[in-house]
Structure formats: structure tokens, C-alpha cells
Amino acid sequence: MRSTVFWPDRPAEAPQNPAISIMAGLMAIQISQDMATGPLVYLETFGCQMNELDSELVTGHLAALGYRFTQSRDEADVILFNTCSVREQAENKVLSRVGRLKQEKAAGREVVVGLLGCLAEREGDALLASRPEVDLLCGPGELDRLPMLLDNILKCESVAIRERAALQGSRSRRSTTLSAAEDGLETLDLSRAFDPEGGAAGGRTAYVRITRGCNKFCTYCVVPNTRGAEVHRPPDAIVEECKRLADQGVVEVTLLGQTVNHYVYVHGAAVTVDGRESPQVGPGLAAFRREDRGGNGRRVTTFAGLLHRIHEEVPTIERLRFVTSYPRDFGDDILQVMRDSARICPYLHVPAQSGSDRILKLMNRGYTVGEYREFVDRVQAMLPDAGIAGDFIVGFPTETDQDFEQTCDLVRSVPFKNNFVFKYSPRPGTVAIDKFTDDVPEAVKRERINRLLAIQSEVSQAVHEREIGRVHRVFVEKLGQSARKSHGGVELGWESPQEQVSGRTSGDLITVFDCPPDMAARDLIGRIIDVRVDSASPRLLIGHMEPS
Ligand code: SF4
After folding, report:
1. Residue identifier of the C-alpha nearest atom 1 of ligand 1
2. Region at 22 (left for phi over 0; alpha for psi -120 to 50; beta for the rest)
3. Is residue 252 classed as helix, strand or coil in its secondary structure?
4. pTM as predicted
5. 3-state DSSP call for residue 391?
6. Which of 6, 77, 239, 505 lies in the 20 to 30 Å Cα band around 387?
């Protein structure tokens, strides 16, 4: 019986983190005393940084409840895929993995298969009906309830269809206002059990969510439906989370939001719980664009104010970054705080998506190419060394050669350090799939993506070349390729190999350099090192470590 194998009943033990106890109490979940015997979970993440952070929170939450984690799908008792619905490719990968598990289950393997994230939210019960091998679905707005779902399934004698579980829709746009005040996801964020051992860059970098959901409704995007309306976390909670991470050794924090510059918190407007402010639904765009940001006389924390607070109140965070920015509504106040705060990285990821006003309108992006260029001009005037990255979609319905040429012009004229370029594919749950015919032939999309990438490659080379000779502070993230020193093209086999490490400048330029022979490359991971740039390629800078 599953319950005896996986989930022995044990007396509850008080967790270390009080927030976990609040959360566990809320959900009446029994906490396992023996952390070594809980079910083995394999969790694979697809998609964006939001999903990465969600997976980290889910991992911490389940681990606190006694679940163990494995890197092996074959030995897992529970297999979870945190899914992405934005790109067709990511979705196909998940479904093919699920297909393989169907065969294994048919052959007698007992394993619980769960889909989390946007695909689960978008497809809902229909997916359970069409994929009997899937035992549970849990949308991104319900992740705080995942342990309850798992617990129910693991305690079933058999995982029959009637016992399969699905949660979705609590972040439906209708219910968001009501649920924001009683926010289990906020508890999940607050109860975060950051694991310095398992974290990236030696546990020295971490994401912090500031906003969930999105109100922009770009016609190609499913996010406003899967993640719901914009909900902003209270600034005190965000600053507190940054402090806790800093106490655990984190030196780089990346603030996350679908459109971070739309962060705004009106004090005194949201419900308070035990004197603490709660997450709050964002004001509509019209209110946000008023001078008072929708505050109506109340005190407001803007995104610029939030950045300033974190910078001032958590000085041990040596790098403060944020993604993703929306090209409109990015005020000079934010640029000023970035300019005046030494530890805020001059890096902006600001998707343009197209260089054609006609296509931007069909995408419902809410700005023109002229407005995008005006924004870039302001960035360059105030932060001349800022790294600017973007996203583009090619082959959007009705995109003509002329539209595409305008996109090429935009890429040529903005010093993008890099661009993520995607071919349009109609995604279920979006406005575009119903409204437009996917009429740009696949071969044309392919040709356009290749051309745009080639142009971007030239732009990246020029951006990188201007860094040659400069010294950058590089945050070392990982080991690079081992490199043998060669002299005049002749590799000297007797010479000891030098290990390369890879990191990023504050402007997010990827930089590699050799670890000095008297140091261990691993010891550099998570440190910020002065590196002089010797040469550049379209993808990265190559340099050497400066003597300290
Ligand atoms: S701004 Fe547009 S593309 Fe970005 S998450 Fe919102 S709807 Fe999607």
C-alpha cells in the first residue's frame, strides 16, 4: 500500500522556520519526522526563471515535509515536471517524457506523475482525461497546495482515475483580488528554505519574486491566463527575503516579475495579517500611469523605491539585478536609482519583439518602435555602459518582408548585447491562435530567424569589442572548458592544464578566463573577481584575472 511505503504516519515535528509552521498549519499537513525515509522526488524544470524559482520553492517545501530528491528519474517515487506553455518545443519535451512514463506504468512501475506550471494550468482536467498516466496537475497559482495533493495521492490504495487530482484556476483573473489577501503563495515565498549547497554559483546567487502574473495581454502569450493578474508582494517581505538570503551567503539577487517595472505597492490599501502587509493586486494600467501610481493620497512604493530600499538595507548583496522589463512605463526614476546605486547592475532585459509598428499592434504590445528607441536613448544617456538584451519573435501572422526588414533595422541600431529570437508558433490559450492565421511559411520563418541571428551576432561582436582592455568585476558562476596552453598552435602535452571559469560582468556580459595555476578553479565560483578583457567574440569576452 502506497501510504505505508512512502508516507509513514509519524508525530509532527516543529520545523526550524516559523513560516513553514504557519504554512503547514494552514494546510493541516503532517510533517515527517524522519527526513531520510520520505518519498523520492524527481523534479525537472522547463521554461523561464519564474519556473526555476517555483521549483526551488517547491523543493524546499517538500523537503521540509520529509520528501527526498533524486537526479534519477528511474529511481523516483514521484516524478514532477514544472512545465512551460510559452514555447511549443518545451511543451513537446514534457509530453514526450510523460509518454515514456506511460509505457513504464503499463509495464508495472508504480510512480506518481505530476505536471506543475503553465501547461497544467492551461490544460486542466482535459489533460487528466487524455493522459491517464498523469496523476496530478497543479497550476503555478496553486503550488502551495502541492503537498496536500501529493499526500492525497500517496495515501490512496491505488491511483485510479477518480483519485487523480487537479488544482487550477485559483489565480483566475476573477478570483485574484479576493485571494491576494489570503495568499498561500506568499507564505511559500516567505517560507523559502534556500539551500546554499544546491544553489547555482556555489549558492551565492538567488532569485526573489516581487510580482506574480501579468496584465498586458500580448496576443501571443498565455501567461496572463496561466499566472493570473498582477499581484505585488509587500516591500517589507521582499527586503526581509533579501536579508535572509544575504545571511545565508547570497551576494547576487535577481528580482523577478513578468514586467518588473510595473511593480507598485500602495501602503494601507491591502489587508494586513498580524500587522503584516499582504500581497496586493496591481492597479490597472490607467491608474499606474497617473503621477500618484494609483495611490490616491496613500504612500506608494514604486519599483525605483523598492530597488533603493534593497540597495540601502541589504548592503551585503553585492549585485542586485532584475528581469524582465517592459519597454513602456520605465521611468527615469528607475534609471536614476540604477545610476546612483553602485551595487545595482546596469543590465536591462527589455523585449522589443518586433521592429514593425503594425506587428507590435497586432501583438498588443502597447508601444511603438519609436517609443522603444526613445527608451533606449534614455538608458544610454543615463547608463552609457548598460548591457541591453531583448527578445524578438519572427514570423508573427501577416509579417511581411518589409515588417521583418524593420525588425532588422532595429536590431542593427540598438547596441543589444544579445537577443533571444523565436519563431512564432500558435499557442493554445492565446488570443493570437483564434484571431490570426499562422500564415508565414515555416521556411520563411527559418530564413528570418537565421538572418536576424546573423545580424545580432555582428552587433554582439561590436558591443563586446568595445570592452577590450577594460577591467570588469566578474561574478564567477561555473567552471568553463579545461584549456591547455598552446604555444604557436602547438599543444604542449607536458604542461599542466589550466582550468577556465565562466561568469558575468555587472552588465551581464559572459566572460571566461583561466584560473591562475596556484588557485583551484572551484574556489573561484561565487566570487567577484577583477578581470581584464583581452579579446571578444560574439558570444563572450575572454580575459585574464587582474592581480588583487
Ligand atoms: S508582458 Fe506580454 S509577453 Fe510578457 S508575460 Fe505579459 S502578456 Fe506575456
Report:
1. 216
2. alpha
3. strand
4. 0.82
5. strand
6. 239
